[in-house]
């Protein structure tokens, strides 16, 4: 995207680079999806079993979950990339998109892509819906545990623990469902949504995750005071 933006006429990407870009895009995206699911399980343990959390979420357990997450993302991306680029390409070599993604690339194939599109649709659908269902089940249990907390302060602290995760989950899943799991395709709208979940969401992640950090809050307050002092002068 940066190469395209800085070049007035755009810049071409080689076929191997397009393959690598598609694999990396789906690898990181699916890994993030699995990671959000693991994080919801982590929040469930922290709120439902606070006294046993340290033993249940040990360093070894974290390492296993992280390894499974990355391996699953790698396997899922390999399937998407292999299915997409085994098709013959003999016509135009330009896609109406900012990055090499499966839907616009499939439109360039010189063969029937209905079977491949269905397999990719089902594969992404199973991963996205499965992860989202597990996240929802975790939060149902979390809400049940929060309602058992007697003090309002305790319930508010438990809610704050999950607020950042809920925010990034919504920012991640809504655009993915819009792009990959809806009938039909509008190229202009797809490009706008693609900018959101490839650029805006990652930029928001550091802000969302650090809002509860006391040092970050102090730094923001200091910055605000400096700005107000500068404007008063």
TrEMBL record:
Presence of the UniProt keyword Acyltransferase in the record: no
Domain of life according to the entry: Eukaryota
A Pfam cross-reference name: 7tm_4
UniProt KW keywords: Cell membrane, G-protein coupled receptor, Membrane, Receptor, Sensory transduction, Transducer, Transmembrane, Transmembrane helix
InterPro entries cross-referenced by the UniProt entry: GPCR_Rhodpsn_7TM (IPR017452), Olfact_rcpt (IPR000725)
Coiled coil: none
Annotated Gene3D superfamilies: Rhodopsin 7-helix transmembrane proteins
Domain G-protein coupled receptors family 1 profile: 1-209
PROSITE patterns registered for this protein in UniProt: G_PROTEIN_RECEP_F1_2
Membrane topology qualifier: Multi-pass membrane protein
GO molecular function, one term: G protein-coupled receptor activity
TM spans (from-to): 118-142, 162-180, 192-211
Signal peptide: none
The UniProt record lists the keyword Cell membrane: yes
GO annotations of cellular component type: plasma membrane
Compartment annotation: Cell membrane
Function: Putative odorant or sperm cell receptor.
Family note: Belongs to the G-protein coupled receptor 1 family.
Protein's UniProt name: G-protein coupled receptors family 1 profile domain-containing protein
């Amino acid at each position: 995207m940066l190469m395209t933006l800085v070049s007035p006429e755009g810049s071409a990407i080689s076929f191997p680079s397009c393959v690598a870009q598609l694999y990396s895009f789906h690898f990181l995206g699916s890994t993030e999806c699995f990671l959000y699911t693991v994080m919801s399980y982590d929040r469930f343990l922290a709120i439902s079993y606070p006294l046993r959390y340290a033993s249940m979420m040990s360093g070894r357990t974290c390492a296993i979950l992280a390894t499974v997450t990355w391996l699953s993302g790698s396997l899922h991306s390999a399937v998407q990339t292999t299915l997409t680029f085994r098709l013959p390409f003999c016509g135009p070599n330009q896609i109406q998109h900012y990055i090499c993604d499966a839907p616009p690339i499939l439109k360039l194939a010189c063969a029937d892509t209905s079977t491949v599109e269905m397999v990719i649709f089902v594969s992404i659908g199973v991963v996205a819906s499965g992860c989202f269902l597990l996240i929802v089940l975790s939060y149902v249990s979390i809400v049940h545990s929060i309602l058992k907390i007697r003090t309002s302060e305790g319930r508010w602290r438990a809610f704050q623990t999950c607020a950042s995760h809920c925010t990034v989950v919504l920012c991640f899943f809504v655009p993915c469902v819009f792009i990959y799991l809806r009938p039909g395709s509008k190229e202009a709208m797809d490009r706008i949504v693609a900018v959101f979940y490839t650029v805006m969401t990652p930029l928001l992640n550091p802000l969302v995750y650090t809002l509860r950090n006391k040092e970050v809050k102090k730094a923001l307050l200091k910055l605000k005071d400096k700005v107000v002092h500068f404007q008063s002068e």
